[in-house]
Amino acid sequence: MNPYEKLLLQNKAWSEEKLLMDKDFFNRLAHQQKPKFLWIGCSDSRVPANEITGTDPGEVFVHRNIANMVVHTDLNLLSVLQYAVEVLQVDHIIVCGHYGCGGIEAALGNKSFGLINKWLRNIKEVYKLYQAEIDSIVDSKERVNRLVELNVLEQCQDLIKTSIIQKSWHDRKSPEIHGWVYGLTNGLVKELTTIKPDPENIHPIFRYSDDQF
Ligand code: CO
Questions:
Q1: Which end of the chain, N or C, is more open, meaning fewer C-beta atoms within 10 Å of its C-beta?
Q2: Could you tell me the CATH number of the domain that includes residue 179?
Q3: How far does residue 54's CA lie from ligand 1's centre (Å)?
Q4: Catalytic residues, which ones?
């Protein structure tokens, strides 16, 4: 059997299993989606949003890219963010990195990867902010893992710099921003931060005036 055919067979079995447990499962989901969470995670195949959080289809709106970045010129990320916040009105945004992230590791090196260099450059900028701390770590794996954490914290900050989040905080006091890191070796999530919807949590230079909204 061609490997992709196995996926189609498994899909059929999965669909039948879902219907056995709940005959209205797909009818209900086809009618509307009302997820409470937006997930911004790494594209890494070992970090599937639904599986590691035990959530079903319909529960999590998902955006994934290399190293779970919030890049302000990324139309894809910004469109997902605006739709999730303004239309779906999610109450939580989770930025989830993972230890041993290949994107972070690549950004800490000097090898050229072609087009991907332009993406990794954003991670190098995060490293530069925390260079003294990262450089003081002797073990190379630990260096990667610390930058994974600092990068998640930085991407959470990049979220609250957007007018999308600031307008939503002003209009409906939501969503909360959560920074998580997933461990590939134990399957567990470590919570790094929660940022509550309060303008005081935004660095003053990035805060837009209230009357703009
Ligand atoms: Co990764």
A1: N
A2: 3.40.1050.10
A3: 20
A4: 42, 44, 46, 98, 101
